[in-house]
Specification:
296 residues; alpha/beta; single chain; 11 helices; 14% strand; ten-stranded mixed β-sheet; UDP-N-acetylmuramoyl-L-alanine:D-glutamate ligase
Length: 296
């Protein structure tokens, strides 16, 4: 096992650069009841430096989110009666993905049967790196063939409860009692990258491992995982390998949380505070040599 002791670096921005140089993130997210999750994912992807961010979201959600996110291109998708994404969106998303650098799937999608079928199909059919989170993970719990050696980079970002369900463990406590082993074995088995969230977030591809030193208890609130999905996706779009993007992404995400906590305190910290603090976190990175002291 190789421990990562230095953070990856993003390429410097150059005077002649344009938005096409910094990647294209496609986010597949949202539902009538969870527009906020999609909004957090796209806003964080933009703040983390993606050149273009597109959102595929059900029609009712598109009408709400588009006016809130003028820097994002919003694509209304067919919706099921409950306002979730219909599996009829499959072809539309496939076309959009042809121009994407990376596809993020999951925030706020719900676990409706149609949406679950859609997620499983997309993990099989898309030929782009995929970041899978939230309801994207819930869709594959009983369909792990959908991520089994799929021949493209795939980053899964489970919290401990989701990790327990994915790994077939009885409880969250079984994950928390052996976080490193659980994450590494799952990553090895399916040849994917696992970001096991929580105190000391673990990033592993089954061979290398990074334990994140940033972050704080105030980040244990709804929506912060959606922010992480957007950040990691944006870093992949800008040219980092998916593993390096996950390592740098969790570090910057936690650093933004630490900066926000200095202003808001731990009790009042919410996910939008992290997005507001991302610019400061990236500025902080420019002041350090990216050397990270790992716990233990």
């Amino acid at each position: 096992m190789r421990l990562i002791r230095k953070l990856p670096r993003l390429a410097a921005r150059v005077p002649e650069g344009h938005k096409g140089d910094y990647g294209h993130v496609l986010v597949v997210a949202g539902s009538r009841s969870m527009n906020g999750a999609a909004f957090l994912a796209i806003q964080s992807a933009m703040r983390a430096g993606a050149g273009l961010v597109h959102l595929a979201t059900p029609l009712p959600s598109a009408a709400v989110i588009a006016p809130m996110a003028p820097c994002c291109i919003v694509h209304p998708m067919p919706a099921s009666p409950d306002g979730s994404m219909s599996d009829q969106a499959r072809g539309h998303i496939g076309e959009l993905a042809k121009n994407a650098s990376v596809v993020a799937i999951g925030p706020g999608l719900t676990t409706s049967p149609e949406t679950r079928r859609l997620v499983i199909a997309l993990t099989q059919e898309l030929d782009r790196p995929i970041v899978l989170d939230a309801d994207g993970l819930n869709a594959i719990v009983d369909n792990l063939y959908a991520i089994d050696r799929v021949g493209k980079p795939m980053v899964l970002t489970p919290h401990p409860g989701e990790m327990a369900r994915l790994a077939g463990l009885p409880s969250t406590a079984d994950v928390q009692g052996n976080r490193v082993k659980t994450a590494m074995l799952f990553a090895q088995r399916y040849e994917i990258i696992v970001v096991l969230k929580g105190h000391g977030t673990i990033v592993t591809d089954g061979n290398s491992m990074f334990v994140n030193p940033t972050g704080n208890p105030g980040m244990a609130s709804g929506g912060t995982g959606d922010v992480l999905t957007g950040v990691i996706s944006a870093l992949i779009a800008q040219g980092l390998t998916p593993f390096d993007a996950a390592v740098l992404g969790v570090y910057v995400h936690g650093l933004a949380g630490d900066l926000a906590a200095k202003q808001k305190g731990l009790v009042s910290l919410i996910a939008t505070d992290l997005i507001d603090s991302l610019p400061g976190a990236f500025l902080e990175l420019e002041k350090v040599d990216y050397q990270v002291a790992l716990p233990g």
